[in-house]
Specification:
Layout lengths: L1 E3 L4 E3 L4 E4 L4 E5 L6 E4 L5 E4 L5 E4 L3 E3 L8 E2 L3 E4 L3 E6 L6 H10 L1 H6 L11 H6 L1 E4 L2 H23 L9 H10 L5 H8 L3 H15 L11 E8 L2 E8 L4 E5 L5 H10 L4
Antiparallel strand pairs: 1-2, 3-12, 4-11, 5-6, 7-10, 8-9, 8-11, 13-14, 14-15
């Protein structure tokens, strides 16, 4: 260890001091000129890419709001005005390296957020913040380890649904089981509350309702059931004993559009 006059503390011998703006620069996202919904079963909003800042797995930071100074990695798409991409300007570091550095000091950066009503990331403070990095050979080994660690974190994250409680595979299993069983029995089987099962089932029916391939059977059966404190219509293929669809309400105004969408056999 050797004394560093710039940091006023000891650092490993041979290591160098860098300001963060020597490693990356902030590229602020923008407000899209037009946003539209694509009916792909998930109701994901898309926007025109012209003039937008895009990210392809880069480290990004939240610049405004309660989550200001929080960083994320491994996401793809266009960045809105709330985010900024941390674009590398130094070939010695990787995106994963930048992400790990920002994660290490995230609590420090959050403490210096500006703004009395709406917090904002302190871009100037972060840009001038100083870190120490090793020589090239050691840096390369660290970068490899960071890349491996970050990729594992991304894989784990992608297996978890947006709610953060269930893996995607478990959610799909619960949704299908809930079609033929009560929420309580499904909840007991997998060790969750009935409310969690009901929420998963509701999102599943939203997706099923968007399917355009439901065809009218030769003999259509109509019934109703009580679900989540509401009477709901049930459409059945009597000859094949298949439930075709479940509506939201038994009122005529809500049922009629469902008949219109059904294709002729």
């Amino acid at each position: 260890m050797v004394w560093n006059d710039e940091l006023k503390r000891e650092i490993p011998e041979g290591w160098e001091v860098y300001q963060l703006d020597e490693l990356f620069r902030f590229v602020k996202g923008r407000i899209p000129t037009e946003v539209f919904d694509t009916n792909d079963g998930n109701k994901i909003s898309y926007c025109k890419k012209q003039g937008m800042i895009t990210t392809a797995g880069d480290t990004i930071m939240v610049m405004d709001g309660a989550a200001s100074s929080e960083t994320y990695v491994g996401h793809y798409g266009a960045l809105g005005s709330t985010f900024a991409k941390l674009e590398k300007v130094n070939g010695r570091v990787t995106d994963s390296f930048v992400y790990v550095i920002m994660q290490k000091y995230q609590s420090v950066f959050k403490k210096v957020n500006t703004g009395s009503t709406v917090p904002h990331a302190n871009k100037d403070y972060i840009s001038k913040f100083k870190v120490v990095l090793p020589k090239d050979d050691c840096l390369k080994n660290m970068a490899i380890k960071f890349d491996t660690w970050v990729q594992k974190q991304i894989q784990v994250r992608d297996c978890i649904d947006d709610g953060g409680k269930l893996t995607k595979r478990l959610r799909e299993t619960i949704q299908k089981d809930a079609l033929n069983n009560t929420f309580t029995s499904v909840a007991e089987r997998y060790g969750f509350g009935a409310t969690t099962v009901a929420t998963a089932f509701e999102s599943y029916t939203d997706i099923l309702r968007l399917r355009p391939d439901v065809k009218a059977p030769r003999v259509l059966g109509l019934d109703e059931c009580h679900l989540q404190k509401q009477m709901r219509p049930v459409y059945v293929d009597l000859e094949n004993a298949i439930i075709l669809e479940m509506g939201r309400s038994v009122k005529k105004g809500r049922c009629y559009p469902g008949f219109v969408k059904v294709q002729e056999p």
